[in-house]
Write a structure and sequence with these properties.
mainly beta, Porin, eight-stranded antiparallel barrel, two-stranded antiparallel ribbon, elongated
């Protein structure tokens, strides 16, 4: 199944589920700061967006399972900084359809916690060094990420969420210079911090 088919199918599921009594659901909009471990740069300097939808099913008085579908921009950026003797410009832009599956626990009326896994399907990519496209190792078409975060309830319809989203497998098909070890192999790994607003329909 192609990524855009997955996106359409998942939004259909969310739309149907929201109208079922045992489900809740809505839309979300997020801002992303990302980096790539193993690209020899550091810092969450690549900005992106993360719009989408969500649906949840209660599993207890304070717990629920939440499924999401969205578009997320990840990657890496290094800007020239002559004052620090850095003259190179680098950018990696990755766009994914992301499908998180999370367990959420409402610790109090205001605060909630979440953890789970998110499947990523690559839609597009671009990589440039000093303005020229690179021809390095190709990117994987899909990846699995760990996701964990904290939610703050604003009111009955709105909550603010802060989440970390880290790939468990290398984003590239082959090893490259500078790659690092994570869990079970060497590679380059995407790390993202996301702040989102979730609105209940």
């Amino acid at each position: 199944m192609k990524p855009h088919h997955i996106l359409l199918f998942s939004f259909l599921i969310i739309s149907v589920s929201v109208h079922a009594q045992q489900f809740r659901g809505g839309v979300k909009a997020g801002l992303v700061g990302s980096q790539v471990a193993g690209d020899t740069y550091s810092g969450y300097n690549k900005a992106g967006i993360n719009p989408g939808g969500w649906v949840s099913l209660a599993t207890g008085v304070k717990s629920e399972i939440q499924m999401e579908i969205g578009y997320i921009q990840k990657g890496s950026r290094e800007n020239p900084d002559p004052k620090r003797d850095k003259f190179d410009a680098y950018i990696m832009q990755l766009g994914y359809v992301e499908l998180p599956f999370l367990y959420r626990y409402q610790y109090s009326e205001m605060f909630g916690f979440e953890a789970g896994l998110a499947m990523n399907f690559l839609l597009h990519h671009r990589e440039k060094f000093n303005g020229y496209p690179t021809i390095g190792s190709p990117f994987r078409g899909h990846n699995l990420c760990f996701a964990g975060g904290l939610s703050v309830r604003i009111n009955d319809l709105l909550r603010i969420n802060i989440r970390t989203d880290n790939s468990l497998f290398s984003i590239r098909k082959n090893r490259v210079t500078g790659d690092v070890w994570r869990f079970w192999g060497y590679g380059q790994f995407s790390d993202a911090l996301i702040i989102s607003a979730y609105y209940k329909l």
